[in-house]
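New to this. Please check this record:
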Amino acid sequence: MPHNTFRPDLMGSAEIDASGPLTCGELNTITLTYTAGHFGIDDSGSIKISFRSASDQTRFQMEKPQAIGYVSVKTSNGAGVNTWYESNRNIRPWHHTLYIQCKRFLAEGDKIIVCFGDRSQGGPGYRTQTFAEKTLEFRVHIDAFATYDYVVLPEDKQPKIELVAGPPASFFAILPTLRTVADQFSLGIKAEDRWGNPTDRNPTTLTLHSSRPVKGLPPTVNMSGSGGVVRIEGLSVDSPGELAVTVKDTHGATVAVSNTLVSVSKSEFRHFWSDMHGQSEETIGTNSARDYFTFARDKALVDICGHQGNDFQVTDAFWRELNETTAAFEQPGRFLALPGYEWSGNTSVGGDHNVWYRQEGRPIYRSHRALVMEDSQPESDALDASKLFERLQDEDALVVAHVGGRYADVGYAHDAKLEPSVEVHSAWGTFEWIFEEALTAGYRIGIVGGSDDHKGRPGASYPGATKFGSYGGLTCHLLPELSRDALFSAFRQRRHYATTGCRPYIDFRLSGLEGATREWSSDIVSTNEALIGDIIQCEGSSALLSLRIAAHRGIERVDIRDGLQTLEVVKPLADRRRQGNRLRVQCEGAEYKGRGRLVNWDVQVTLNGPEVLSVNPINFWNPDRKVRQEGSSVSWSNATTGGAHAVDIWLDDASSGSLNFSSDVTSFELNLSSLTDEDYVVSCGGLKKAVRITRLPDEPLPSSLELTRTITFDSTTERRLFARIVFEDGHMAWTSPIYVTKIEHP
């Protein structure tokens, strides 16, 4: 008889004492009561209670009754139990598991009472997970016969609770980044709780103040009943220029300033934003696939979204359902929902690759079938990345290598037609190395960002309190219209730039090209200008590179790069940095490429001489991680997973004295008088693991920048030109390169 058909209806039932929704990230106590079924439980039989791997609730423990996460267990018949808690020891996605083994048998009707976050001995309870979930399940499995072969209780006997957002902690305003004067556009206003969940608890009325006249913009917006997000449609401006909207509360205090919208007289394309990478509860994520796309469209306010369930968990039934879902959500001109999956082979056979189709109804080519208990079309499996590219040769598909749990080995296999870009940032961290490896291999590759969201928040993916180390990334696509045809055409030409989740306007191009042609689809087009992602052949020896940025925050630095070489580092307000009294102490990098990449930083910075006036954390995504200041000492604990976090420290005088940096990673002392506008960097091994000290001006850095540079060409080297941008708030952006080769005529 197949597993789990052995009478789960006779294995008992479970219930919890939570009567209503709980608030994300708050301390709670919940009692789960399991009642034994017809078979009871044999001596040394057991139950296990599991939670999804995405959950970042407190890790449970049974040793310290007065500490957070304490769990107590008792039985109604007085039988003793052994209890232990482990992660990554149960079948995916139910990784976090409490095991309870009975020392003597239970009969039908006997109970096991489990108190999660027991406060009876002075403990504070346990913190619920930080992200909203409609049906958070305490998944109960029964080993009634002491065989270690567990049977899952039926769904109607599984205890579930709802987790909802807390009160507003921050507000955001979201505009598109490029439109023409003839276009109408929308403004999104969002309220989020301290963990990044959209919320309309404690609703308020906000006032809107635009930097220039906007037709259709109301003076106020009421957040009541909005679910945390209000979208104001039908806005327009009557002339070219830049627009930002400031949001103020009822006391007149500014609570948000939007990103910048650049309006132009005419343009061959507009900017559309995507998060094409994440999962829902049908695989290893949270909430349903329908909820997933709804959040991306209505809460994150992205224009394009894809779903990337691990192929070895995507059943045929879910693959059909997912295709039906994307077709239902598809609305050209408003929102694109793409069918796809994550080819999830181990790194040794190529590693993770995202696959998207232009149309529904196409096959899924699985890397393996570890969790797919069906044999339908095994002949279509693609057991390594080379086979995947072979299978996709006749498909209208896009592929992107990425770094998640299994990182992609871009050197293992590559197909330029199918794989135009690599993903350099997600909630897992920042992975510039994968782009550098692609360049080293000689690929003409673009750059994208995504979230790889597991928490039901594609497009606005906060890492929460566990292994994810970053806010999820976004990609800006340069499209003539919002349609799948336009997206696939532009994607294959690398017409996009990536960010760590911010939405800056970026224009990066070459002009004044002589005798130049551009590869576009299967055509060769004459041109005197190159845009992001273009592959150019030209006869001239030089061209003018121009970069324009209009951002949400100040620009800390811009690296103009040619492949692996940095041509120039641009630091706005360089002169004022030399006299500035603000120090940025930044920790960055990873241990290595794989799952164990996380670096824990326990830092103490002591200033000898200058007085510490104030501090400000950068990229501290977990609000429970605080920066502590005591006199001249500043300390914190945080992690990096390839990206960076930092603390800005304002001093009364940063021109003299010394800084002592102490941590479990490295320690050093720096004479402050030696700091100019150049960074002081201490390498710590690993994968670009380092501490960086930067001197900044006292005032905020400018949020806009325009520059031009003359770039020369020769016939011996292909230019691979792109911009890498670091913003004052810790966000980053990368443009896909422009590839230029000079042709020499005989």
Observations:
- The first strand starts at residue 13 and ends at 16.
- The mean pLDDT is 95.
